[in-house]
Design a protein that fits this description.
By secondary structure, the chain is of the alpha+beta class. The protein is 30% helix and 25% strand. The chain has seven helices and eleven strands. A seven-stranded mixed sheet has the order 6-7-8-9-10-5-11, sandwiched between helices. A hairpin with an 8-residue loop joins strand 3 and strand 4 (54-56).
């Protein structure tokens, strides 16, 4: 039986207690302390409209080693079409991510309560967005949660071809400079695998995560123009 969380207690079952589908628990709420606790434990919320909050720790887990990112010639060329910013239009990024159909995901899971919760975390400096622009118009981007030296990618969108991939490439360049370890891509998708992400066992992921939590990185999320070439 999948355990129900007590919303008055910030406590999760261990991620390895997830069922065969990767579900750890259900219920609780999306307050900032619970969300931070979840990500530090290798757990994240993911659920459809009308369902209770469902907390996941899938096995296998998809991760991106920063040196494994595949920057193709065509993508490198596309990157020159865009201007990039961090954290200037977070709410529009997350809302646009919520409007995109996903063939290999649960669909429109980015609902009002998710938008409010992650916007709060963004205001606390825990969640960040990477944005691609053309003629001052937001055309693509992504957002994710920072845990120590780990970036937990949540979602991305593109209104123009390669706009999200280009934002992803810009993110990886900055994460490497800042000393991050890897990106948690959470659930395996063919799109991210095509960019170099790989599936790993949950135990491997949790061991990496436990080491990361010890460290903290001090930096500002500002674009380094020398990395945009």
């Amino acid at each position: 039986m999948i355990p129900q969380l007590n919303k008055y207690e910030l406590k999760f079952p261990h991620a390895n207690e997830a069922n065969s589908d990767g579900i750890v628990a259900w219920g609780g709420d999306l307050n900032p302390s619970r969300l931070v606790k979840a990500y530090m434990s290798g757990i994240f919320p993911w659920y459809s409209k009308g369902d209770p909050i469902i907390w996941w720790s899938p096995n296998p887990r998809l991760i991106m080693e920063l040196d494994d990112f595949k920057l193709s010639r065509s993508l490198k060329k596309s990157m020159k079409k865009f201007n990039y910013k961090f954290d200037t239009n977070f709410e529009e990024v997350i809302k646009k991510c919520g409007t995109k159909d996903r063939n290999d995901q649960l669909g429109t899971w980015i609902q009002k309560d998710i938008i409010e919760a992650y916007t709060n975390l963004h205001g606390m400096g825990i969640v960040h967005s990477v944005e691609s622009y053309q003629d001052d118009k937001l055309v693509g981007g992504l957002y994710g949660v920072v845990v120590g030296k780990l970036f937990c990618g949540e979602s991305m969108f593109a209104d123009v071809n390669d706009a999200s991939k280009s934002a992803y490439a810009i993110l990886i360049k900055h994460l490497k400079k800042w000393g991050y370890d890897f990106i948690d891509c959470q659930v395996p998708t063919e799109h991210l695998k095509s960019l170099g992400a790989k599936e790993v066992k949950r135990d491997y992921f949790l061991n990496r995560l436990n080491k990361i939590n010890i460290d903290k990185i001090e930096h500002f999320w500002e674009i380094d123009n020398s990395l945009i070439k």
